[in-house]
Specification:
This protein has 92 residues and is mostly helical. It is built from three helices and two strands, in the order E-E-H-H-H.
Length: 92
């Protein structure tokens, strides 16, 4: 069985509350890995803004269509996040 991926712990830990003031539970929110993935995804998508529409279309077509292109970009974002977490681990 594979070891679980390092998710970096909570990105924005906070306390969450329910309807009653007596009911307060810690909430970890999203993981640092999820945060880094989202940031990498935003950066990657933004990098296409400077390309011409024809070049953007060529990228999507060469990837195998919109769904395939989105999957490639998504996997790349996760790889960037894992690389960032690995760099943090090695420097601690």
């Amino acid at each position: 069985m594979n070891a679980p991926k390092n998710d970096g712990g909570p990105a924005f830990p906070s306390e969450s509350s329910c309807a009653s003031w007596q009911c307060r539970k810690p909430s970890s929110g999203m993981s640092l890995r999820q945060w880094y993935t989202g940031q990498a995804l935003c950066g990657t998508i933004a990098s296409y803004a400077g390309m011409s529409a024809a070049d953007q279309e060529a990228l999507v077509i060469n990837a195998g269509g919109p769904e395939a292109f989105a999957a490639i970009v998504g996997r790349a974002a996760v790889m960037y996040a894992d690389a960032a977490l690995g760099a943090l681990e090695s420097n601690l």
